[in-house]
Amino acid sequence: MFKNLFKNNPELNKYYLRGLAPFALLVLVIELTPMDIMARFFIYIGYIWPYSIETPGLKERIQNPKYRFSFMRLVFNLDHFLGEFSLKLSPNHGEKIKMALAPFIYCSLMSFVASDVAPFYCLIGSLLYLALFEFLYKRLQK
Question: pTM (2 decimals)?
């Protein structure tokens, strides 16, 4: 069963391995800190959001009519809209701004509705994503 799972798309398997290994280390470190559970959750969203958006083949799947009402399509469209907006603000660093801005807006809405935790923890998660995944993934890809 698992042989077929890992044989189908080796590029996607490498992407998952190289992205989830740093996330597992991040979770281990954060879970050992005396931090509020919602703050942890916001950090995880800040990391997972850009990671999931950059998944190879996601754009093609989202364009499929089957995903018309999915949450992932909503996330992808919000991220795309913010990407266009951030590129107008800063043509050189627009992609990095987008990575941090989309989860921050989502966490701000969640914080407004359900929590008293500051949504700035999402920015920490996005920065950790840039530091861990981008650095390791690009370094290991060479």
Answer: 0.75
